[in-house]
């Protein structure tokens, strides 16, 4: 007959995952807003109740509104912590400050599944925020779940200062060896011509000017392809891409566009909350116009109130809804994998949940993130301008990226420009110039003034 401890060893561990609340038809009594993240065991359907109650109590306002990015980030951090405790077979309400210290230390040996690099000290510190906040919140709001906890558990707030002091001492005494992951600045990664070409193919078809529903190819949405082009050819961040509005392109819908000319788009909100314009070459603007007139018009037909966001889902339960940052980032990651634009990373993993017995796993990951398209735009545009005779290409790149200071732009991208220059050919630069409209550039000042007045 098995002992109680042996039975626990044989028990199937929970498979914690994140899900979001759905808009249940006819259900107006749901306690959570639509799209709210929560943690659940995919095997049993059991909720991670303290995490759900903590987020619902602290992250929603009186009207049921919430900041999606914050809730998603907190849920992701709590998920990782919950999985860690589960593998070590530590109940959440028995976790001690020592357990938390071991969890933080474990991140020194792991790489992020998102970008394939080691976690920075800033990331480790940020991950502690929702975890410590939940344990500080719990005794006052769910005391029944916090009873009979041993000494030294995370409910003991007096230990928090001691833990943080020890962490600060550890960080000060840490000596970097093979990597310098404490630096906030990273060397920007950029894609080469072939990687871009193959990834764009995997992102789906480009927007069509007509015949949206004439063949099988048109059943695949062009939002992935267009979204990648906006990041690559205009240097936009993923949040800026999914936040673009149709109204920004309204004046170009019935205008003859010149492929070698630049057109002003904006003003719209960019990083830091500032409203700025961005220049897009005629080829890119034409693709946006094609998408608005064809695919988007077909998708939004019959929708009572158009929200005005440019990129929308073409099919499925989210048809007509705005594309989200996470969706576009995942599409790009999958496209990199499909195009074999990948890299191999090493990750330590426990054997059968035993964290004292670790093995090294070799994992295939996307080589780039969506933000690397912005880096690619900067490096490519710099050399296209330089080869075309621009005496101050850094100034141009700074303006296009929306940086306040050209020195900041130069400092960040200078380390990679020499490597890039060694692989550049005249034919490649000619292609960049043609695609980006670097020469034969035309700006319509009157239209810019009209737009500024309208805004």
UniProtKB/TrEMBL annotation:
GO terms for biological process: DNA integration; DNA recombination. GO terms for molecular function: DNA binding. Keywords: DNA integration, DNA recombination, DNA-binding. Residues 45-139 form the Core-binding (CB) domain. Residues 186-426 form the Tyr recombinase domain. PANTHER family: PHAGE INTEGRASE-RELATED, PROPHAGE INTEGRASE INTD-RELATED. Belongs to the 'phage' integrase family. This is Site-specific integrase. It comes from Ramlibacter humi.
């Amino acid at each position: 007959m098995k002992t109680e401890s042996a039975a626990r060893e044989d028990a199937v561990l929970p498979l914690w995952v994140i899900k979001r609340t759905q808009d249940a038809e006819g259900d107006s009594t749901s306690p959570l807003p639509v799209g709210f993240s929560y943690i659940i065991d995919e095997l049993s359907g059991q909720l991670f109740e303290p995490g759900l109650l903590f987020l619902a109590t602290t992250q929603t306002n009186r009207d049921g509104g919430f900041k999606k990015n914050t809730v998603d980030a907190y849920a992701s951090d709590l998920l990782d912590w919950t999985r860690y405790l589960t593998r070590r077979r530590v109940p959440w309400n028995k976790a001690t400050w020592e357990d938390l210290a071991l969890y933080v230390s474990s991140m020194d040996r792991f790489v992020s599944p998102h970008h394939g690099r080691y976690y920075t000290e800033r990331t480790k510190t940020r991950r502690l925020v929702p975890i410590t906040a939940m344990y500080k919140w719990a005794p006052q709001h769910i005391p029944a779940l916090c009873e009979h906890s041993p000494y030294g558990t995370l409910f003991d707030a007096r230990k928090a200062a001691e833990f943080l002091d020890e962490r600060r001492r550890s960080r000060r005494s840490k000596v970097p060896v093979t990597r310098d992951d404490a630096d906030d600045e990273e060397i920007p990664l950029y894609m080469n011509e072939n990687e871009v070409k193959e990834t764009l193919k995997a992102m789906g078809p480009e927007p069509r000017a007509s015949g949206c529903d004439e063949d099988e190819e048109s059943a695949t949405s062009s939002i992935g392809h267009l979204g990648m082009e906006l990041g690559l050819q205009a240097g936009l961040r993923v949040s800026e891409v999914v936040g673009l509005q149709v109204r920004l392109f309204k004046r170009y819908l019935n205008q003859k566009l010149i492929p070698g000319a630049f057109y002003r788009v904006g003003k719209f909100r960019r990083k830091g909350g500032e409203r700025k314009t961005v220049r897009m070459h005629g080829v890119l603007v034409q693709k946006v116009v094609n998408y608005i007139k064809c695919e988007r018009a077909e998708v939004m037909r019959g929708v009572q109130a158009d929200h005005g966001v440019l990129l929308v889902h073409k099919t499925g339960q989210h048809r007509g809804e705005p594309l989200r940052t996470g969706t576009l980032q995942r599409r790009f990651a999958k496209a990199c994998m499909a195009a074999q634009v990948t890299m191999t990373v090493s990750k330590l993993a426990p054997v059968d949940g035993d964290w004292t017995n670790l093995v090294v796993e070799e994992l295939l990951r996307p080589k780039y993130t969506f933000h690397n398209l912005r880096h690619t735009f900067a490096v490519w545009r710099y050399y296209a301008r330089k080869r075309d005779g621009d005496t101050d290409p850094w100034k141009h790149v700074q303006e296009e990226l929306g940086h306040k200071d050209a020195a900041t732009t130069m400092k960040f991208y200078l380390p990679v420009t020499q490597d890039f220059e060694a692989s550049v050919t005249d034919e490649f630069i000619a292609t960049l110039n043609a695609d980006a409209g670097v020469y034969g550039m035309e700006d319509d000042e009157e239209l810019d003034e009209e737009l500024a007045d309208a805004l």
